[in-house]
Amino acid sequence: MTKRMREKRNDDGFRLSDNRRRAESLQIARQNDEFKNEENKRRAEALMIERQNDEFKTEENKRRAEALMIERQNDEFKTEENKRRAEAHKIERQNIEFKKEENKRRAEALMSERQNDEFKTEENKRRAEALMIERQNDEFKKEENKRRAEAHKIERQNIEFRTQENDRRLNSLKIKREDEEYKQEERRRNASRMRMSRDKYENNFHLMKLNYESKIKEGPTHICSCCGGLWFEYSIKEFTVEMLRNKGLPKEFIDT
C-alpha cells in the first residue's frame, strides 16, 4: 500500500490531481469560520515559533523591506500609506502620554542635531527665509510688531532691564560719536532742528506775538502734578496713566 502510494506520488499527473483536490478541500473548509479561526491560530503559533529564530527574522524583515520598496514605487499605494499613517498618528496624538513621549523624542533629536554646526547653519537659514516670506505679509508684520512692543513694555517695567538698556544705549551712542562722520551728521541734524525752530517764529511775527501774549506774557501759570512747580504751557506735556505705564515708569512714580 505504502509502496503503491509512493509510486503514485512520483507521477506528475497524480501529484497535480492530488494538489487540486487538496486546494478545493481547503477552499471549502475555509468557508467555515471555526476552521478559519483554527487555521489562523495555527499559523500565528507557527510564525511566533519561527520568529524566535534570528535567521528567519532577518529573512522575513528583508522580504518585507523589498516588498515595501516595490509597493512604494506605486503612487496610489504611497498616497494610501501616507493617509493611513496620518490617521494613525492623529489617533495616537489624542493620547496625552503619547504626545509627551513624542515631544520628548523630538526635543532630544533636535538637541542632538543642533550640536552639528552644519545642521544649525541650515536651520537658521530656513528660519530666516521663512521669516522673510512671512514679513512680506502686512498682517504678520503688524502682529510681530505688536508682540515685540508688548514684550518690550513688560521688560521695561523691570528696573534692572531699563538700567541695562540705558547703559547699552549710552555706550552705543558713545561709540558712534567717536566716528567723525556720525558727529558731523548729528551736528547737521541739531543745526537743522534749531534753524527750523527759529524760522517758525522769525518768519511769522504775528505767530510770535500771539505766542508771547498767550503763553509767556502772564508768566508760568501751569502747575506740574509731579513737582508742584509753576511752568509755562509750552513746557508742560500731558500724560495719561496708560501712557506712563507704556513708558515703563514704576508704579510708585505713577501713583504720586
What does this structure look like?
The chain is mostly helical. Among the domains are: 114 residues, no CATH class; 40 residues, no CATH class. 79% of the residues lie in helices and 2% in strands. The protein has 13 helices and two strands. The protein has a two-stranded antiparallel sheet. A hairpin with a 6-residue loop joins β1 and β2. The protein is rod-shaped and about 140 Å long. The termini are far apart. Keywords: Coiled coil.
Mean pLDDT: 78
- Total number of helical segments? 13
Tell me the Rg in angstroms. Answer: 42 Å
Elements, N to C (H/E): HHHHHHHHHHHEEHH
Structural class of the helix and strand makeup? mainly alpha
Q: Give unreliable regions as ranges.
A: none
What's the total count of β strands? 2
Major sheet: 2 strands, antiparallel
Basic shape: rod-shaped
Helical percentage: over 70%
In short:
The longest helix is centred in the C-terminal third of the chain and has 23 residues. The chain is rod-shaped and about 140 Å long. It is mainly α.
Give the tags:
256 residues, mainly alpha, two-stranded antiparallel ribbon, 13 helices, 2 strands, 79% helix, rod-shaped
List the helices and strands and how they pair.
Blueprint: H1 2-9, H2 12-29, H3 33-50, H4 54-71, H5 75-92, H6 96-114, H7 117-135, H8 138-156, H9 159-177, H10 180-202, H11 205-216, E1 222-223, E2 230-231, H12 241-246, H13 251-255
Antiparallel strand pairs: 1-2
